[in-house]
Specification:
Layout lengths: L7 E5 L3 H13 L3 E5 L2 H11 L3 E4 L8 H10 L6 E5 L4 H9 L4 E4 L5 H12 L25 E5 L3 H13 L3 E5 L2 H11 L3 E5 L7 H9 L4 H4 L3 E5 L4 H9 L4 E4 L5 H18 L21 H4 L1
Parallel strand pairs: 1-2, 1-3, 3-4, 4-5, 6-7, 6-8, 8-9, 9-10
Amino acid sequence: MEKEIKKKILIVEDEQQLVELLSAKLIKEGYDVEAKYDGEDGLMKIRSWKPDLILLDIMMPKVDGYGVLMAMNEENIKIPVIVISNSGQPVEIEKTKKLGAVDHLIKTDFSPTDVLKKVNSYLSGGAAASFDESVLNPVDGKIGSKGLKVLLVEDDSFLGEICSKKLVKEEYTVYRAVDGMQALEGAKAIKPDIILLDIILPAIDGFQILGEIRRSKDKKLATVPIIMLSNLGQDDDVKKATEMGATGYMVKAHFTTDEIANKHLKSTTQGLRAKKGAKCGAPKGHKGNTFIWPDINKII
């Protein structure tokens, strides 16, 4: 009988007690676990051992977690990385996502069981391993009376949940994606009437998704209105989004879910009802430096 090959997990973390706790939990679950206590040794082990998943601290001796992620990008090492950090600051989370981390856990907020659940999800057919078909099911199983389908692409579980619930309440049929694969495959299958698309996502970012959709051979999908959602409002990002064909750009901190549903999304969907199937495009240039919400009725 062929021996089952265990999935390999590398823990790169300088706190020995935490390493021992996580290792014990993961080994008990049947994983092959190795640990390194600084980023330099961690990188050497990544190259030689080729783990299936990495648990990575940020603040470490010699080479920090950012340095490890940057080196992996430079060497085109495609291994899922879950960051385990003392900080839950949005700036750190955004930075690790930009560098390719698939998830971010805050040490004070998780238990070894929580880590195990995350690892299982990424190594047993979860977000990093295959297409999660849950995106094909409307949020709460509800078909909205407005007859318009919204695909919300947002990996922040809290924001994604409250936003999707609000949109369901406003009688939209809402589909939720949490990563790039779900977004792309879901968009092809669902054919949404509008997409709300976060920029910073694990593995495939919002700009890549926007580009893929705009290049689609499916005319309806290629011209769907796409509103970019961002924690930042940098001129370069706004310009890039509009040049790539985004219909609008929103800075999350500047708008409540009520405003998204009651003001901005309504203006878009009113135009969709009036001109369903008409051509969609991006506005020329952009106004201001933090927010674009063009007159959708003139675009579609």
